[in-house]
Design a protein that fits this description.
Surface presentation of antigens (SPOA), 4 strands, mainly beta, 4-stranded antiparallel β-sheet
């Protein structure tokens, strides 16, 4: 197991999603706002290499965003 412990993976926090027609995407400009499907109080997803592994809450730590894990996703089939 020690062999893989130093392998770097890509961790992504997904705040929400939106579906837009390409017409709206190409019209986006600085200051534009996109409404996400999720509510502000909904948990956000933590993805590792594109796979959802946990949910959590966005926190601010020393003027940087962070994630407080609240639930680990069950990986059972």
């Amino acid at each position: 197991m020690d062999v893989v412990m130093d392998v770097k993976v890509k961790a992504t926090v997904q705040l929400g999603t939106a579906e837009l027609p390409m017409r709206e995407v190409v019209e986006l400009s600085p200051g534009a706002q996109i409404q996400l499907k999720q509510n502000a109080k909904d948990p956000v997803g933590l993805l590792v290499n594109g796979k959802l592994i946990a949910y959590g809450e966005v926190v601010v730590v020393n003027d940087r965003f962070g994630l407080k894990i609240t639930e680990i996703v069950d990986s059972a089939p």
